[in-house]
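Appendix B. Raw example, untouched.
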Amino acid sequence: MLKPQHSSFQFECGTDEAGRGCLAGPVTAAAVILPKYFRKGMINDSKLLTPEKRLELREVIEKKAICYSIHHIYMEEIDQINILNASILAMHHCIEKLETVPDFIAVDGNRFHNYKQIPHACIIEGDGKYLNIAAASILAKTYRDELMQQMHEEYPMYNWKNNKGYGTREHREAIKEFGITKYHRKSFKLFPEQLELPL
């Protein structure tokens, strides 16, 4: 069972992102403030859940949360400011859009930039420790997956409905055969030969 939150503040926001390591598509962040009484035993790190369970839990989170928000940072901006800054910026936008101003921010991972003097903690593997971060991971993952499904319908040869834009062998081979699209991150190493070291 995950702990409800990291701090003793009344309105702690959990935040996480999805898609940071992908070759295509946005990086998507979510921020969630859960009520103190919130308990849902099945909520966990989104990577440990089936797609069906994530969608089921998303409905519960959205119904029971005090507030939540989602934000996408797209490829052009990722290429301009780099993926780490884009991930943090997406989290900042989410926090800004929350209807309730948080007293504390619990961040999944080990890097974050201060946001409006609100205290925060970076928690490695926080989505497997705290309910509010796990809830944010579920929202970020499901909303990004839906976006990648839409992009897949436009460019089915990259199989984004299954690989979600990650650099699988199939995805890299498709890039080699068909080239890149407007949805690819041009600052990333996209082609298979870019990863091969000369002997």
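End of appendix B.
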